[in-house]
Amino acid sequence: MFGRIGRERGWGQVTKEHFINEVKYGSFYVGTPEQVARKIAYAMKSIGAERFDFKYSNGPMAHSKLMNSIELYATKVVPMVKEILSADRAASIAASR
């Protein structure tokens, strides 16, 4: 996406530093299921979202890898996000009493 589309839009070349910055602070959700779950939960809490959706693949990716990503998201990440958000809600309720 950043290659062809970026050139068409006049964006600078993507560097490794840019990629790492997007993973840490931007909208790239890359890492272990735990890292991704924490980042999603943080983003949802920050904006008060109740739903979260994202693109699983950008660019060429083997079908097996895409399916593995979707499976990890469904079986690991989503349950962790729900657990994190539920624990935070419980802590907020307890603190308000």
TrEMBL record:
- InterPro entries given for it? Luciferase-like_sf
Mind listing the GO molecular function terms for this protein?
A: oxidoreductase activity, acting on paired donors, with incorporation or reduction of molecular oxygen
What is the superkingdom listed in this entry's lineage? Bacteria
Record's protein name: Luciferase-like domain-containing protein
**Could you tell me which species this protein originates from?**
Actinobacteria bacterium BACL2 MAG-120813-bin23
